[in-house]
Amino acid sequence: MVGNSFIAEALTLYYDKEVIVPSRGQNLEILNRAYQNATSALQKHLLYHQALGTENESLTALSETLGIKYPSHIDFVDIAHLFGSNAQGVVITYINGRPFKKLYRKYNIENENSFDDYASIKEVLTRHYKRKLIEGKHLPDLLIVDGGKGQLGVALSVKDELNLDFNIISLVKDDKHTTKALINEEGDEISVNKNLLTFLAAIQNEGHRYAITSHRAKRGKGTYTSALDGIKGLGKKRKMLLLNTYKSIDVLKSVPLTELSQLIPREVAEALLTKLNRVDDTEGGV
Question: Model-level pTM?
Answer without folding.
Answer: 0.62
